[in-house]
Design brief:
The relative contact order is 0.11. With 742 residues, this protein is an alpha/beta fold. Strand 3, helix 7 and strand 4 form a beta-alpha-beta unit. The longest helix is centred in the N-terminal third of the chain and has 17 residues. Bound molecules: beta-D-glucopyranose. Beta-D-glucopyranose binds next to loops.
């Protein structure tokens, strides 16, 4: 997808995940080898510069050559996004960049103003929530490859993303940067995203570890939740990033967790991440997320970035040196941090003449387009209102600010200086050509300009079809870092606008651009078709036009529930205590019941359920078989069924597998997503789909053990097109043999 081909294969072989393959024993053995003089007499290069040597040999060799000052230079920034070069040893500056849906424009060294360069444009991929709506791990891999290739071209070594924080409240300003409300979906896509990036010799930095689920008071809020909720909901995507994708870097979150800042949180960083999961890469702070030298030294922080102080006064700069000199801190603590930084530096190939990447290639544009199309969710399509037949239309009224608004340069740290961005209006104009009369009326503006509504209604009345392109914006206080949204509804009088337009023209289609769920106040029943198009990257307009006019058959599914009202949402239920917090503490009292786990268990009807998304064709599910497996570590049961395209067009369905335990020892949500597969089918075609469920699919985290416990019990397995559209049901008895806690 991303200009991969032969060069990517070579790169992939070079940049294998390595963090988990190095055991303590091999580390010692290679360290000894590295010290042996003349180990490679014929090679004049010092071991750390020899790509043929194992990473750990190179790390130990380099570590032994560094002075105290040079070591300290590795553990804190010397500009907004760099650590210094060490020219004596031929070590280049290390460059980091945001993330997550493209390589951010460069900023000045010491402030956030744009650097004013002309070579820092990038491909603007659809936001991560849109990627999640594809439910397609292969698309996530292609997406990651675009980021990796462009980062390398831009000289970046660590890309600050993806974010894998869960959508706990639809109001979170950064929901668009994350993968939605389900840990399994987030984990599957994040793993492939990270593999795609790192295949190109660029470190992925998964963020924000952990429980960073709101922007309100993010810099000081203390998150309290029970252990089981942490393990089952908020950690699995990070765990998969570490254990499966071999992610090279992790960023701590701004907030506190159980009273201690996440960037130096003993439990999260030392105990869970580095201890239990065996993470050997580096932990960096979020920008300004470090608060204390002693904790930073002892509690697992390896690289301090963005502190609001002169660089030498960073917590891990002079104060660290002072503490070392006074004997408060050990040399071993510093060495461990430096080792982790060196590992990542060496793994990215910067010492080995890492080849240049590529930027804005046709393949990158194609990847952006493909993800954009696959991300669009057809929420409603009564009477086959869509797709539109351009040949039978003479006029279209396009209404709404988002028809012309560009979103790349919003989102704060997620901001991209895009090579281009096709607006929905542009995309539709390109698609329909000259023979359809297209008018545009704003209808509303985010600065509440009066008089626009009547004009839009008149335009709608005069046209064959009205297309309202509304939603939110990629700016504060909507879908943007730094603040949460204040309400769930559409702003700037859009509800009234849509009601009036629909009354004037029954063929009204609503396209929403947003990075989080919105409500549809009083107009959903009045319009035949609604499409969720997110902030869909630089190919957004083309992708939207392709879906509206049927060149692409929509296959996106919601990665988050669209609730009917804010009062229905899990974080709302406990008042300020559960969101946004009281006296500096936010309590996740809803526990495991986040997203559809909440709506389904509590029998609350959502506007659109998790996993929902229509197609221009239809699918039949049949012949469910649950085939037990016997392997200790392999699948426990394979869920098999036939999926048939019963319509007249090719299309793709995301088949979803949900698990329910009959009599759990501890209460569990009504159902939990444990598998899915996106299947492309020609009209009339049938495919037998097999989805393997491992032991973890049946297990819950038992804090009493502690560990993942799969009880011998009956498990109901449901298969369907959304969490509320379950077409097949079966039961499976988990045998005794799979009981040992992990
Ligand atoms: C954000 C991070 C980002 C960093 C650097 C912080 O404000 O929370 O996600 O990577 O800035 O821009």
């Amino acid at each position: 997808m991303s200009g991969a081909g032969a060069s990517a294969t070579v790169l992939r072989a070079r940049f294998q995940p390595w963090l988990l393959r190095v055991t303590a024993a091999t580390a010692i053995a290679v360290a000894v080898l590295a010290m042996a003089p003349g180990a490679r007499a014929a090679d004049e290069r010092p071991p750390y510069l020899d790509p043929a040597r194992p990473v750990e040999v190179r790390v130990e060799d380099l570590l032994a050559r560094l002075t105290l000052d040079e070591k300290l230079a590795f553990v804190h920034g010397d500009s907004k996004f760099t650590t210094p070069a060490i020219s004596r040893l031929g070590l280049p500056r290390r460059w980091m960049s945001d993330g997550p849906h493209g390589v951010r424009e460069d900023v000045k060294a010491n402030n956030w103003d744009p650097a004013g360069r002309t070579d820092d444009f990038a491909t603007f991929m659809p936001v991560v929530l849109a990627l999640a709506a594809t439910w397609n791990p292969e698309a996530a891999h292609a997406y990651g490859e675009v980021i990796g290739e462009e980062a390398r071209q831009r000289g970046k070594d660590i890309m600050l993303g993806p974010g894998v924080n869960l959508l706990r409240t639809p109001l979170n300003g950064r929901n668009s940067e994350y993968f939605g409300e389900d840990p399994w979906l987030a984990a599957r896509l994040a793993v492939e995203y990270i593999r795609g990036v790192q295949a190109h010799g660029v470190a992925s930095c998964v963020k924000h570890f952990a429980a960073n689920n709101q922007e309100t008071q993010r810099g000081r809020i203390d998150v309290e939740m029970d252990e089981r909720t942490l393990r089952e909901l908020y950690l699995p995507a990070f765990e998969a990033a570490v254990k499966e994708a071999g992610v090279w870097a992790v960023m701590g979150a701004y907030n506190k967790f159980r009273g201690e800042y996440c960037c130096h949180n003993e439990y999260l960083l030392n105990h869970v991440l580095k201890g239990e999961w065996g993470f050997r890469g580096l932990v960096m702070s979020d920008w300004g997320g470090t608060h204390d030298t002693g904790q930073a030294v002892r509690n697992g922080l390896d690289l301090e970035m963005g502190t609001w102080k002169p660089y030498n006064q960073y917590f891990l700069a002079d104060p660290f040196r002072d503490g070392l000199q006074k004997g408060d801190f050990s040399q071993a603590a510093l060495d461990d941090k430096v080792r982790r930084n060196l590992r990542v530096m060496i793994a990215t190939g910067v010492l080995d003449g890492r080849p240049a990447g590529s930027i804005n290639t046709k393949a990158h544009q194609a990847a952006a387009r493909r993800v954009a199309e696959e991300a669009i969710v057809l929420l409603k399509n009564a009477g086959g209102a869509l797709p539109l037949d351009a040949a039978r239309l003479t006029s279209i009224a396009i209404i709404g600010e988002n028809a012309v608004r560009l979103h790349a340069y919003g989102g704060d740290s997620a901001r991209i200086k895009a090579f281009y961005e096709v607006s929905p209006l542009d995309g539709i104009l390109r698609r329909v050509g000259d023979h359809v009369n297209v008018t545009y009326s704003p209808g509303y503006r985010n600065n509440a300009a009066p008089g626009l509504l009547d004009q839009a209604v008149a335009a709608a009345r005069a046209a064959d079809v009205a297309i309202v392109v509304g939603g939110l914006i990629h700016e504060r206080p909507f879908d943007c870092e730094g603040t949460d949204r204040r309400e769930l509804g559409l702003p700037w009088g859009q509800d009234e606008l849509i009601r009036r337009v629909a009354a004037a023209n029954p063929r009204t289609v609503v396209v929403l651009c947003s990075g989080s769920p919105v409500t549809m106040g009083g107009w959903l029943d009045q319009v035949p078709a609604v499409v969720e198009a997110w902030y869909d990257g630089m190919e957004a307009g083309n992708a939207i036009a392709a879906v509206l006019f049927g060149d692409a058959n929509p296959s996106g599914k919601l990665p988050c529930t669209f609730p009917r009202r804010i009062e229905d949402t899990p974080a709302f239920a406990g008042g300020a205590r559960t969101y946004p917090g009281e006296n500096g503490v936010v309590h996740y009292d809803e526990g495991l019941l986040v997203g559809y786990r909440w709506y389904d268990t509590k029998a609350i009807d959502p506007l659109f359920s998790f996993g929902h998304g229509l197609s221009y064709t239809t699918f039949r599910y049949a012949n469910l078989k649950l085939v037990p497996g016997t392997s200790a570590s392999g699948p426990v049961v394979t869920v098999q069924f036939d999926l048939t395209n019963t319509g007249t067009r090719a299309g793709a369905e995301v088949a979803q597998v949900y698990v329910h335990q009959a009599k759990p020892g501890l209460p569990r949500p009504l159902r939990e997503l444990k598998g899915f597969q996106k299947v492309v089918l020609e009209p009339g075609a049938t495919q037998t789909v097999s989805i393997a469920l491992g032991r973890r699919a049946f297990a819950f985290y038992d804090p009493g053990k502690p560990g993942w416990l799969a009880e011998p019990d009956t498990f109901e397995i449901s298969v369907g097109g959304s969490s509320r559209d379950l077409r097949l049901q079966g039961a499976f008895d988990l045998p005794q043999t799979t009981l040992a806690p992990e």
